[in-house]
Structures are given as C-alpha cells and as structure tokens.
Sequence to fold (191 residues):
Amino acid sequence: MAVRQIAPARRAGKSKSAFRKKYPSAETLRELLIYNPCTGELRWKRRPHRDWRDLRHNRHKAGRVAGTTQPGGYVFIGIDHAKQYRFLAHRIAWILWYGEDPTLEIDHINRIKNDNRITNLRTVDRSAQARNKGMYSNNTSGYAGVSLHKPSNKWRAAIGCGGRIRHIGYFDTPEEASAAYQREKVRRDGL
Fold:
C-alpha cells in the first residue's frame, strides 16, 4: 500500500500576501538607487566610504544599471547580497516614486515586463491583473477569447467572468467572434 503525501496547509488566518517578503523602505532604497521615471531605469548610486565594500561597490557598480533580466522577463535587483535578497525592479520603482510599498499587485500596462516607466505601472487586484494577459501560446484562432467549436464547425466566443467562463455565441468567422468578444470585454470592464 502506497503512502500518500499531503501538502502542508498554510497557517490559518494568514493570506498569501502575508507571506510576501518585506521590501526595503523608500529611504533605504533612495540611499542605494537612482530612478529615472521617463526610462524606467534604476542605477546604483555612489556610496559614502565606510569600509572596503563601499570602495568595491563604487569601483564596480556606481552609475551602472541595477538588476538583471530573468528568463520570465522581469528585472530583479539584489539589495543585500549577504542575505541574497532579490527584489522586483517594478516594485522598487513604485516605492521610490510613491514612497510606499503597494498592498495590491503592480501591473505593466503594455505587458512588457521590463518596461518600468512609472506611466506604464499601475496597482491592480489579482482579477484585473489576470485580465491584462495576452493570448495563450496554444491559441489557434489568432484572437483572444475565440476558439473553433468542432461539432458545429463555428467559431465560439467566450469570456471569463467571476471565475466562470461566460459563453457569448457562435459565429461564422473568427473576426465576428472576436468583435463580439471585444464588445463584451468593453461592457464588462467599462473600458
């Protein structure tokens, strides 16, 4: 008889966001980084000389672009290498610009994950973040929310609403189905 492994449950009363790592304060970040809101670039500042680490930092990093782009497309910045903390650059940009760590998620409006200009960032809840996704890689119609309904050989338009899929209708062409999807999306989101 095989023993089944059970995944440990989260601690009762704690939401997922309660376990999110704490970002440094705006004051701490302003001592370390310079943020250009027009380009979204974060650069390392020169540090006042306190010990050999500051000299090394000033020689190798001061004035250079901070962070590295990871395979997922987001830029991460290592702040405290002793503890190996890596933070998302768009959250650091938000903290530097507004002076506080947002409680909601930060969304890249144009969906380019390394475009950290302040005009491209906004705070949204999880459902709005999910609505700003692009097409899935396995999409065969070429349009968001449109798929081929094989039994009827028509194009089906559907949209997610409140955790459920809402059927919009069947159409002769994918363009008609996409237009119906876009109308429903505008009606739902009010955009």
About this structure: The chain has two domains: 20-130, 136-189. The beta strands are 33-36, 41-44, 68-69, 75-78, 86-88, 105-108, 121-124, 146-149, 154-161, 164-171. DSSP finds five helices and ten strands in the chain.
